Every structure is written in structure tokens, then in C-alpha cells.
Amino acid sequence: xxxxxxxxxxxxxxxxxxxxxxxxxxxxxxxxxxxxxxxxxxxxxxxxxx
Length: 50
Hints:
elongated; mainly alpha; 88% helix
């Protein structure tokens, strides 16, 4: 449940930043955040299986 909240907060923050930061930098940070979220999701799945 807290994972979904964290993702929503990150999405909102990135949407707010998108209007201020150039598009290239935004895309790079977006890729990094999506990678991090996927890693956290995979870790949560691994933890739940044990």
C-alpha cells in the first residue's frame, strides 16, 4: 500500500518538475525513477515470496 503512495508522490513530483526542467533532463530522471521503482517492486515480490 505504501509502495503505491510512494509511486504517486514520485509521479506528482516529476509532473511538477516537468514544467521547470528541460525535457532531456526530465527524461533522464524519469528513466532513473522508473528503474528504481521496478527494482523496489522486484524486491518486494522477492520478500513476499519468502
